[in-house]
């Protein structure tokens, strides 16, 4: 049911009053609470000053346990105005003495001293009738007792109630006055004038659509509302007349519009069989470089512009559509002559859209689409295929194309004959196994298994056999593709024999460079335990000398037999010095042992290694790297290691994998040390988990990160972002070769500027060919 303006006005006034009342109460409550808290804190500061004034006297009497003096002093404090009770407690919160109204009283229960405010130096609570104030008694920096004062808050409670009554009275008077004023004003200027205006509208003449605006004693907006309604009726009458005229014009153009909708947005043409006339749209002329209607709209115009070799076929297609009685549509590509003398390919489409009662065609309509760019693209594609065929033949890398289903070679280039020794005629139609290309036939299953998992294979290194029986180390990059609906494998093989020898030299060279950097670190670390040894030895000799007065005094107090000598050593902490000597020697021996293990040449075979131990050894080597310590100390970094439980042993060359970890750790530390601005709270996380038959190792930092260009080239040999003399650009390249070629794994990097870097390494648990 609709409500009147007066009813809605009353409802809105009530809602407004309710909101004002809520806000008023909230503001008053907030002010009251603030006022009450301020008064409470003022009282607390007064009491704190009072106790501070008696601090020294209470501390002395409490320290000397003069209970009678304490009772008298508490009695004096209880005489202070509004102080109800004073109690004194031991340092552990146990009651000691109490006074009230100038006389000693019985002590109360213990107090809880755990929650007092260390910043303000006191604690308090209240129940609006009394304030309980607690402050520690401190002597020589230590708390020796607690003083509690109960303060009367009755005056504060009376002031609060008076404030609430005053606020309530103001609120009621304000709401009543506001309601009276709003109701009178709205009724006079809004409600009554709108009622008069509504009555006049109901008396409007429905034939002429006019009405007389009443004289309203109201605000300007209400008076203008009647005038606006009258103007709206005038414009509505004019709109009715315009709508009738537009409807007639729309009916005249509807026939042509429906034909245009059937065609496309390209050049539109029509051909009338009754008159022989034609119609070409402005886009049709523009497509050929002419101005609109620059050429006559006739069938002959199209015939003159059409290429002589294409016209006859195009005309026959149109005649076939005309004679098919709606059975098919016209579509044909032909060339047309442009104004600038060029030939452009045009796709013509059309159909008969009007016929007479006997089925004879009256009107043919269609579109012309410029397809020159597509035809040129097809020609370029054909030429590109010819060039690709030449590149396929002349490529310096061996390229083979084989049928995935049969595994037989479909095509090979000339470089394949050089690497394998087989001629093209000998290779085609046979499989790589039949040619004996694989030294280890099991590698063929590994290739197809990785292709099925990843969709492509990059730089898969294996040993291929030449026709004469010699071994060729090859790297294969391949991917599956579909040709004529049949899956094929396109593989590129590169002779890596010389490259592999170079990699081995690079790996050993980089390892020796790392060992050289850490050798200085070992000398630096050995100095620390040696210093401890010398200092402990010096103290041991100095504190056992008979001519040292302090030693003589201690020895005389405990005697000279063996038992007393043992007590003397414990009292002077000589046993701790001996322990320091032992720990320092152990530490030096451990550092030297780990350095010697790492500096050995990589073993030709592999062993079963514990990944957790490898990570910890790598971190130890990084902490002892002297070159790193010059720029960054690993002890300042948040190191987090997470290795999945039950991960198992990893078949690898221990020193090589440690070198990979060390190279990544070194790069991360240097990047965070040289970042601008410096990295706050540097963090390094190492995670290891099992993924199928492989182990996944992630090393992530929160350093400055890298852009896409650097990430793409990070594993390239001799690529470095460091200044000359600070890096060779071989560390990550060697690491990549160790992981991918040496251990059959994968190594990737993910990084964004300002968001850190993450290296992802995946290694098989078993080496290739291992059962």
TrEMBL record:
Superkingdom in the source lineage: Bacteria
Reactions it catalyzes: ATP + protein L-histidine = ADP + protein N-phospho-L-histidine
Residues of the PAS domain: 253-325, 384-451
Top class in the EC scheme: transferase
Membrane spanning stretches: 12-33, 163-182
Keyword Iron-sulfur: no
SMART domains: HATPase_c, HisKA, PAC, PAS
InterPro entries listed in its UniProt record: HAMP_dom (IPR003660), HATPase_C_sf (IPR036890), HATPase_dom (IPR003594), His_kinase_dom (IPR005467), HisK_dim/P_dom (IPR003661), HisK_dim/P_sf (IPR036097), PAC (IPR001610), PAS (IPR000014)
GO cellular component, one term: membrane
Gene Ontology MF terms: phosphorelay sensor kinase activity
Domain HAMP, first and last residues per copy: 188-241
Enzyme nomenclature, EC number: 2.7.13.3
Annotated PAC domain residues: 330-383
Swiss-Prot/TrEMBL keywords: Kinase, Membrane, Phosphoprotein, Transferase, Transmembrane, Transmembrane helix
Signal peptide range in chain numbering: none
Subcellular location: Membrane
Stretches assigned to the Histidine kinase domain: 521-767
Keyword Cytoplasm recorded: no
Protein name: histidine kinase
Organism of provenance: Desulfomicrobium apsheronum
């Amino acid at each position: 049911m609709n409500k009147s303006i007066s009813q809605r006005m009353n409802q809105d006034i009530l809602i407004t009053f309710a909101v004002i009342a809520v806000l008023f109460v909230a503001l008053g409550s907030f002010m009251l609470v603030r006022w009450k808290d301020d008064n409470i804190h003022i009282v607390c500061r007064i009491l704190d000053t009072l106790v501070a004034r008696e601090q020294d006297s209470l501390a002395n009497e409490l320290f000397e346990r003069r209970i009678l003096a304490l009772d008298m002093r508490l009695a004096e404090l209880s005489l202070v105005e509004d102080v109800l009770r004073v109690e004194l407690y031991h340092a552990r919160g146990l009651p000691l003495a109490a006074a009230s109204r100038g006389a000693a009283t019985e002590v109360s229960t213990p107090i809880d001293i755990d929650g007092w405010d260390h910043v303000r130096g006191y604690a308090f609570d209240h129940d609006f009738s009394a304030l309980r104030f607690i402050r520690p008694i401190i002597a020589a920096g230590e708390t020796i007792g607690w003083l509690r004062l109960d303060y009367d808050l009755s005056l504060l409670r009376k002031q609060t109630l008076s404030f609430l009554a005053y606020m309530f009275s103001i609120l009621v008077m304000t709401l009543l006055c506001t309601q009276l004023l709003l109701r009178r004003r709205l009724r006079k200027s809004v409600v009554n004038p709108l009622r008069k205006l509504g009555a006049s509208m109901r008396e409007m003449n429905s034939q002429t659509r006019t009405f007389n605006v009443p004289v309203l004693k109201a605000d300007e907006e209400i008076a203008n509302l009647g005038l606006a309604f009258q103007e709206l009726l005038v414009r509505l009458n004019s709109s009715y007349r315009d709508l009738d005229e537009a409807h007639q014009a729309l009916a005249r153009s509807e026939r042509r519009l429906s034909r245009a909708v059937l065609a496309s947005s390209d050049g539109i043409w029509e051909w009338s069989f009754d008159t022989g006339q034609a119609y070409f749209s402005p886009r049709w002329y523009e497509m050929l470089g002419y101005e609109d209607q620059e050429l006559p709209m006739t069938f002959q115009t199209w015939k003159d512009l059409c290429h002589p070799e294409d016209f006859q076929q195009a005309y026959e297609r149109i005649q076939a559509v005309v004679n098919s009685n709606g059975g098919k549509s016209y579509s044909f590509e032909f060339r047309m002559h442009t104004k600038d003398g060029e030939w452009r390919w045009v796709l013509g489409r059309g159909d008969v859209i009007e016929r007479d009662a006997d089925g004879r065609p009256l009107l043919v309509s269609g579109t012309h689409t410029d397809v020159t760019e597509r035809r040129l693209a097809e020609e370029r594609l054909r030429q590109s295929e010819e060039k690709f065929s030449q590149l396929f033949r002349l490529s310096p890398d061996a390229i083979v194309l084989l049928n995935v289903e049969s595994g037989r070679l479909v095509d090979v280039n000339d470089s394949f004959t050089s690497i394998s020794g087989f001629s093209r005629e000998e290779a085609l139609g046979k499989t790589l196994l039949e040619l004996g290309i694989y030294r280890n036939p099991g590698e063929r299953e590994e290739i197809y298994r990785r292709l099925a998992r990843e969709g492509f294979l990059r730089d898969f290194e294996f040993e291929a056999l030449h026709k004469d029986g010699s071994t060729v180390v090859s790297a294969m990059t391949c991917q599956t593709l579909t040709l004529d609906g049949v899956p094929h494998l396109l593989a590129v093989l590169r002779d890596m024999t010389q490259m592999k020898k170079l990699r081995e030299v690079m790996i050993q060279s980089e390892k020796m460079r790392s060992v050289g950097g850490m050798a200085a670190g070992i000398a630096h670390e050995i100095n620390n335990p040696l210093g401890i040894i010398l200092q402990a030895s010096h103290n041991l000799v100095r504190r056992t000398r008979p001519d040292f007065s302090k030693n003589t005094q201690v020895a005389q107090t405990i005697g000279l037999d063996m038992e007393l000598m043992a007590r003397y050593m414990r009292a002077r902490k000589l046993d701790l010095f001996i322990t320091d000597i032992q720990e320092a020697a152990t530490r030096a021996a451990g550092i030297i042992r780990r350095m010697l293990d790492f500096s050995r040449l990589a073993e030709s075979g592999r062993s079963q290694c514990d990944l957790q131990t490898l990570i910890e050894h790598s971190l130890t080597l990084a902490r002892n790297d002297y070159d790193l310590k010059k720029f960054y100390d690993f002890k300042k970094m948040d190191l987090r290691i997470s290795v999945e439980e039950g991960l198992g042993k990893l078949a690898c060359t221990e020193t090589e994998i440690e070198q990979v970890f060390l190279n990544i750790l070194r790069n991360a530390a240097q990047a965070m040390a040289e970042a601008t601005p410096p990295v706050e709270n540097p963090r390094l996380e190492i995670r290891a988990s099992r993924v199928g038959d492989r182990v996944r190792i992630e090393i992530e930092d929160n350093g400055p990160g890298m852009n896409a260009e650097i990430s793409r080239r990070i594993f390239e040999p001799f690529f470095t972002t460091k200044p000359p003399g600070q890096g060779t650009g071989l560390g990550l390249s060697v690491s990549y070769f160790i992981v991918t070629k040496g251990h059959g794994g994968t190594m990737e990097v993910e990084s964004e500027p300002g968001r850190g870097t993450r290296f992802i390494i995946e290694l098989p648990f078993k080496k290739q060919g291992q059962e």
